[in-house]
Automatic annotation (TrEMBL):
It holds the Pfam family DDAH_eukar. It comes from the Bacteria. GO terms for molecular function: amino acid binding; dimethylargininase activity. This is Amidinotransferase. InterPro entries: DDAH-like. The keyword Hydrolase applies.
Amino acid sequence: MTPPTFFAVEYAINPWMDTSTPVDVARAVDQWQTLRDTYRRLGHTVDIVEPVPGLPDMVYAANAGLIINGTAIVAQFKHAERQGESAAYAAWMGQHGHRPVATRHVNEGQGDLLVVGSTILAGTGFRTQPQAHTEVAAITGMPVVSLELVDPRFYHLDTALTVLDDTTIAYYPPAFTAAARSRLRGLFPEAIEVASTDAYVLGLNAVSDGKHVVYPAQAAGFAEQLYHAGFHPIGVDLAELLKGGGSVKCCTLEVFS
């Protein structure tokens, strides 16, 4: 995780960002700290990557890459405003025993590359290029399932789909093409389908350890669905960071080994 020390909405590269809306950095830091403390309270290790001035979106650590089995596939960002984050995160990855590897095509890390069991679900349509999916499959040796997004509010896969455990997901069907929905139904016939009310507060931008699901607190309906499915939902308010188009998962780069 990276603290939002330099968080700001200085440009607009997704529909959630409005440069005329003021940002309360102190409040953003407090909300981020609550998320960090929640993970620690659940027994998880949280490593901190130092923020870099001039990179206001660096708080969205999930986009930094995909770290799995000692290899770190470093993000290649679509927008120039975020490209400086790649070097900062690659340096941290290398210093912490992960082998940094670059793709030739645009990939935005765990924003669009979500591990479920032995498979990677890979988003495309707005940021990550489909050619990067092929590269990720070759680097990891894992099957990659491409899923096309069609609603710009859900510009990354992690805004429209949550991995809950090795066999279970939750997702918002209208965010995907008909072909992608068909793939998801075939792979996950028992998936939780989330309503618009929860999707529109980025309720699916959540993190699960297989039992506890840390989710944006405004997504009350999703929390109820999780409870009835046997998970333990834990709501965290990240409303200030939502102004940049991210929430719980966006702030969390998971390391898979």
